Amino acid sequence: MKTRANQRAQQSRTGPWRAGEAGESRWLLALVVLLVAVTVVTSVAGAHAKLVRSVPADRSSVADAPSRLRLWFNEPIEPAYAKVSVWGAGNRQVDAGDQAIDPADPTAVSVGIPNLAPGAYTVRYRVLSVDGHVVEGTLTFTIKPGPKQP
Q: Most buried by CB count within 10 Å: which residue of 24, 39, 71, 148?
Protein backbone atom coordinates (compact mmCIF):
# COMPACT_ATOMS: atom_id res chain seq x y z
CA MET A 1 0.00 0.00 0.00
CA LYS A 2 1.38 3.38 -1.06
CA THR A 3 1.38 6.29 1.32
CA ARG A 4 0.54 9.81 0.27
CA ALA A 5 4.20 10.83 0.51
CA ASN A 6 5.17 7.98 -1.82
CA GLN A 7 2.42 8.94 -4.26
CA ARG A 8 3.58 12.58 -4.29
CA ALA A 9 7.20 11.56 -4.79
CA GLN A 10 6.23 9.23 -7.64
CA GLN A 11 4.06 11.94 -9.23
CA SER A 12 6.84 14.56 -9.03
CA ARG A 13 9.22 12.22 -10.90
CA THR A 14 6.71 11.39 -13.65
CA GLY A 15 4.38 14.44 -13.77
CA PRO A 16 3.96 16.80 -16.73
CA TRP A 17 6.27 19.43 -15.18
CA ARG A 18 9.33 17.19 -15.12
CA ALA A 19 12.12 18.44 -17.43
CA GLY A 20 12.15 16.79 -20.82
CA GLU A 21 8.64 15.43 -20.57
CA ALA A 22 6.08 15.91 -23.36
CA GLY A 23 3.83 17.94 -21.06
CA GLU A 24 6.52 20.54 -20.46
CA SER A 25 7.20 20.77 -24.19
CA ARG A 26 3.51 21.39 -24.85
CA TRP A 27 3.38 24.14 -22.21
CA LEU A 28 6.52 25.74 -23.57
CA LEU A 29 5.22 25.60 -27.15
CA ALA A 30 1.88 27.09 -26.07
CA LEU A 31 3.68 29.91 -24.27
CA VAL A 32 5.85 30.70 -27.31
CA VAL A 33 2.81 30.69 -29.63
CA LEU A 34 0.93 32.99 -27.26
CA LEU A 35 3.86 35.44 -27.05
CA VAL A 36 4.23 35.52 -30.83
CA ALA A 37 0.48 36.07 -31.28
CA VAL A 38 0.45 38.94 -28.78
CA THR A 39 3.45 40.56 -30.48
CA VAL A 40 1.87 40.32 -33.94
CA VAL A 41 -1.52 41.60 -32.79
CA THR A 42 -0.08 44.59 -30.93
CA SER A 43 2.22 45.56 -33.80
CA VAL A 44 -0.61 45.33 -36.36
CA ALA A 45 -3.10 47.11 -34.12
CA GLY A 46 -0.74 50.05 -33.65
CA ALA A 47 0.17 50.32 -37.32
CA HIS A 48 -1.42 52.75 -39.73
CA ALA A 49 -0.29 54.97 -42.54
CA LYS A 50 1.98 57.85 -41.64
CA LEU A 51 3.11 60.61 -43.94
CA VAL A 52 6.84 60.09 -44.48
CA ARG A 53 7.65 62.82 -47.03
CA SER A 54 6.19 65.26 -49.50
CA VAL A 55 7.21 67.38 -52.48
CA PRO A 56 7.22 70.24 -51.76
CA ALA A 57 8.40 69.36 -48.26
CA ASP A 58 6.41 70.48 -45.22
CA ARG A 59 7.31 74.06 -44.17
CA SER A 60 9.60 74.50 -47.16
CA SER A 61 10.09 77.58 -49.32
CA VAL A 62 10.51 76.87 -53.01
CA ALA A 63 11.29 79.11 -55.95
CA ASP A 64 8.94 77.21 -58.25
CA ALA A 65 6.21 74.75 -57.39
CA PRO A 66 6.30 71.40 -59.14
CA SER A 67 3.43 70.61 -61.47
CA ARG A 68 2.16 67.98 -58.99
CA LEU A 69 2.17 67.90 -55.20
CA ARG A 70 3.24 64.42 -54.02
CA LEU A 71 2.75 62.71 -50.67
CA TRP A 72 4.34 59.40 -49.62
CA PHE A 73 3.09 57.24 -46.76
CA ASN A 74 4.78 54.37 -44.95
CA GLU A 75 2.23 51.84 -46.25
CA PRO A 76 -0.19 51.48 -49.15
CA ILE A 77 -3.34 53.56 -49.11
CA GLU A 78 -6.79 52.85 -50.55
CA PRO A 79 -7.18 54.76 -53.85
CA ALA A 80 -10.94 55.20 -53.57
CA TYR A 81 -10.65 57.02 -50.24
CA ALA A 82 -7.63 59.28 -50.82
CA LYS A 83 -8.32 63.01 -50.69
CA VAL A 84 -5.59 65.61 -51.18
CA SER A 85 -6.20 69.32 -51.72
CA VAL A 86 -4.10 72.49 -51.86
CA TRP A 87 -5.42 75.77 -50.47
CA GLY A 88 -4.14 79.30 -51.02
CA ALA A 89 -4.94 82.83 -49.92
CA GLY A 90 -8.52 83.47 -48.87
CA ASN A 91 -9.01 79.74 -48.18
CA ARG A 92 -9.37 79.14 -51.91
CA GLN A 93 -8.74 75.65 -53.31
CA VAL A 94 -6.04 75.93 -55.98
CA ASP A 95 -5.24 72.34 -56.98
CA ALA A 96 -6.38 70.73 -60.23
CA GLY A 97 -8.67 68.23 -58.45
CA ASP A 98 -7.02 65.31 -60.24
CA GLN A 99 -5.61 63.39 -57.29
CA ALA A 100 -4.27 59.94 -58.09
CA ILE A 101 -2.42 57.07 -56.49
CA ASP A 102 0.84 56.26 -58.27
CA PRO A 103 0.23 52.92 -60.06
CA ALA A 104 3.88 51.97 -59.53
CA ASP A 105 3.86 52.96 -55.83
CA PRO A 106 0.64 52.43 -53.82
CA THR A 107 2.13 54.46 -50.94
CA ALA A 108 2.18 57.67 -53.03
CA VAL A 109 -0.65 60.05 -53.89
CA SER A 110 -0.43 63.25 -55.93
CA VAL A 111 -2.54 66.14 -57.16
CA GLY A 112 -1.85 68.71 -59.87
CA ILE A 113 -0.93 72.26 -58.79
CA PRO A 114 -0.75 74.35 -61.96
CA ASN A 115 1.18 77.66 -61.99
CA LEU A 116 0.84 78.76 -58.39
CA ALA A 117 1.62 82.38 -57.60
CA PRO A 118 4.09 83.28 -54.85
CA GLY A 119 2.55 82.92 -51.40
CA ALA A 120 1.72 80.47 -48.61
CA TYR A 121 -0.20 77.27 -49.28
CA THR A 122 -1.76 74.61 -47.10
CA VAL A 123 -2.12 70.97 -48.11
CA ARG A 124 -4.93 68.97 -46.55
CA TYR A 125 -4.97 65.20 -46.83
CA ARG A 126 -7.20 62.41 -45.66
CA VAL A 127 -6.37 58.84 -46.62
CA LEU A 128 -7.47 55.36 -45.65
CA SER A 129 -4.61 52.95 -45.11
CA VAL A 130 -5.05 49.35 -46.19
CA ASP A 131 -5.33 48.32 -42.52
CA GLY A 132 -8.54 50.39 -42.24
CA HIS A 133 -7.25 53.43 -40.34
CA VAL A 134 -8.16 56.93 -41.53
CA VAL A 135 -5.21 59.30 -41.41
CA GLU A 136 -5.57 63.02 -41.95
CA GLY A 137 -3.38 66.04 -41.57
CA THR A 138 -2.03 69.23 -43.06
CA LEU A 139 1.27 70.60 -44.21
CA THR A 140 2.37 73.95 -45.53
CA PHE A 141 4.79 75.30 -48.10
CA THR A 142 5.61 78.71 -49.52
CA ILE A 143 6.44 79.76 -53.05
CA LYS A 144 9.01 82.55 -52.89
CA PRO A 145 8.58 85.64 -55.01
CA GLY A 146 10.85 85.78 -58.03
CA PRO A 147 13.53 88.43 -58.55
CA LYS A 148 12.18 91.94 -59.01
CA GLN A 149 12.34 93.27 -62.55
CA PRO A 150 13.84 96.79 -63.04
A: 71
CATH 3.40.50.720 fits 51-143, yes or no: no
| Residue 146 neighbours by CB under 8 Å, 6+ apart | 63, 118
Q: pLDDT tens digits, residue range 123-132?
A: 999 999 888 8
Q: What letter represents residue 92's amino acid?
A: R
CB 53 within 8 Å of CB 134: no
Reported pTM: 0.66
Residue 62, strand partner residues: 143
Output phi, psi for 28, to 5 deg: -65, -45
Residue spans of the domains in the chain: they are 4-45, 51-143
